[in-house]
Design brief:
Pfam family, one: EAL
GO molecular function, one term: cyclic-guanylate-specific phosphodiesterase activity
Organism: Pelagivirga sediminicola
Protein name: EAL domain-containing protein
Radius of gyration: 20 Å
Strand order of the largest sheet: 1-2-4-5-6-7-8-9
Number of domains: 2
CATH topology of the largest domain: TIM Barrel
Largest sheet: 8 strands, mixed, barrel
InterPro entries: Cyclic-di-GMP_PDE-like (IPR050706), EAL_dom (IPR001633), EAL_sf (IPR035919)
Structural class: alpha/beta
Shape: globular
CATH class of the largest domain: Alpha Beta
Number of strands: 9
Helix content: 40-55%
CATH architecture of the largest domain: Alpha-Beta Barrel
Number of helices: 11
């Protein structure tokens, strides 16, 4: 786009087209919204159950999913902002707050097992490591009940750093989950060297699997890889009974999704009320 057209479109010089400008403007607005939420401590966790396949009346563990409140009081899920802040300082702070809240929850509920999301970019972030150390030192039982979920895409950015980090923390009893498996480009050369205990199969392969031959083949292959490396499998985004039945039949270990419960900022173990607030 030439400068004359950019001027009439109100697009700053240096941005090539309206779409690039719109994406950049949207990301800046999102980052500002998250920064404002952090500044005013409007950050919380929503908890979603992960249930054993075939024994879905009980919960294996909960995943703590970060949420923020916007200036109107709406609860905003991570998928609406995490992409914009992932590589920024704000992204590291959000990881710190998520871990801090997760550790506090584990300390308050001694029978709870909880997974918390993190980016591999936070491994070298001093505040994140200090938060983890304080939580582990304050309550020795926390480590054995904490699962750290690292996305496949971020793990592959610094695989050697991730393997060292996991080896160190495994000694404290912490478990690790490889999140969104299948969505990225895992090098199987690294997969055998990682210390992942849990492999979470990305929801794009799970939704509608009972009637999708391609997803059936792909999910079975991913589950076979997990078993080969002695990893526990979790299917994400389970939303229908027929999908749950199929996944159970092929030997998936655990199921997670709206069919078993939406992420809730008021889980049943925090409130006696039967109706849960979802976020």
């Amino acid at each position: 786009m030439d400068q004359r057209k950019a001027k009439w479109a109100d697009i700053p010089a240096g941005l090539q087209d309206p779409l690039s400008y719109a994406i950049s403007a949207r990301d800046q607005s999102t980052i500002a919204m998250v920064e404002e939420a952090v500044r005013h401590k409007q950050v919380m966790l929503a908890f979603q159950p992960v249930v054993p396949a075939g024994q879905t009346e009980r919960v294996a563990f909960y995943e703590g999913l970060i949420r923020i409140l916007d200036d109107t009081g709406r609860i905003i899920p991570a998928k609406e902002f995490i992409g914009a802040i992932e590589t920024t300082e704000t992204g590291r702070i959000i990881d710190c707050l998520s871990l801090e809240k997760g550790l506090r929850t584990l300390s308050m509920h001694s029978s709870l097992r909880l997974s918390i999301n993190m980016s591999a970019r936070s491994i070298g972030y001093g505040r994140w490591m200090r938060t983890l150390k304080r939580g582990l030192d304050a309550d020795p039982t926390v480590g054995e009940r904490l699962i750290l979920e690292i996305t496949e895409s971020s793990a592959m950015l610094v695989p050697d750093l991730v393997t060292g980090f996991m080896a160190d923390l495994s000694a404290r009893g912490i478990s690790f989950a490889l999140d969104d498996f299948g969505a990225g480009f895992t090098s199987f050369r690294y997969l055998k060297d990682f210390y992942f205990d849990i492999l979470k199969i990305d929801g794009q392969f799970i939704r509608g699997i009972a009637n999708d031959a391609n997803n059936q083949v792909l999910t079975t292959a991913l589950a076979t890889i997990a078993r080969q490396f002695d990893m526990f499998t979790v299917a994400e985004s389970v939303e229908r009974a027929d999908d749950a039945a199929y996944l159970t039949a092929i030997g998936i270990d655990c199921l997670q999704g709206y069919y078993y419960g939406a992420p809730s900022v008021k889980p049943i173990w925090l409130t006696p009320e039967p109706r849960l607030a979802s976020a």
